[in-house]
Amino acid sequence: MIVKLYNENPNPREIEKVVSVLRDGGIVIYPTDTLYGMGCDALNVRAVEKICDLKGINPQKSNLSIICNDLSIISEYAKVSTPVFKLMKRNLPGPFTFILPTTSSLPKIYKNKKTVGIRIPDNNIVREIVAQLGNPVLSTSVKDDNDEMEYTTDPELIHEKWGEIADIVIDGGFGGVEPSTVVDCTSGEPEIIRQGKGTLNF
Question: Which residues form the YrdC-like domain (predicted)?
Answer without folding.
Answer: 12-198
